[in-house]
Amino acid sequence: MVTTYAALLRGINVGGARKVPMADLRAVLTGLGYGRVRTLLQSGNAVFTAPDHRDPGRLAAEVERALAEWFGFPVVVVVRTAGELRAVVAANPFPDAGAEPARHTVTFLSGRADPDRLDAVDPALYAPDEYRVADGGRELYGRFPDGLGRSRLTPLLDRRKLGVEATTRNWGTVTKLLALAEE
User: Fold this and answer.
1) What is the pLDDT averaged over residues 154-165?
2) Which own/partner pairs from 66-75 qualify as long-range (CB within 8 Å, at least 24 positions apart)?
3) Domains of the chain: residue spans and CATH
4) pTM of the model as a whole
């Protein structure tokens, strides 16, 4: 049996630093023995298959090691199965996300968010921006009516504040990644 996974790389190809060409990313993933390797955009989104169901956390660590060897710098990777990604899309608490995908995000976490850290954020102070924690605590959904650039909420939903690694994608990218994973 083969399982499809999505790998999301954090902090690459931004501002000319930490360059990870998608052709090289595909080469690294193929070199690890993964199949049907495809990438989406230049921001570090990949889909691949692996035999049997493997733990996404272990896959992420394996990919991180290989990327560090290939590029010479660390890259944080968060992995979800296609099924997990499908559940993330289905559970979106913001019904208008499809109409304004650039103003809606999903922050994918390497583990469960620390509830105490999230409870310390008073959402009323950041309106109209808002966020919701997914049932499993490994994703945060964000809604930013005035855009992400000026939001005072986004820095509070950062990996340093959450206590786990995190990488954020806008809703359009999330749905395109799911479509790629389901091909």
Assistant:
1) 82
2) 66/28, 66/31, 66/32, 67/9, 67/20, 67/25, 67/28, 70/24, 70/27, 70/28, 71/18, 71/19, 71/20, 71/24, 73/18, 75/9, 75/10, 75/11, 75/12, 75/18, 75/20, 75/44
3) 2-84 (3.30.70.1280), 87-181 (3.30.70)
4) 0.93
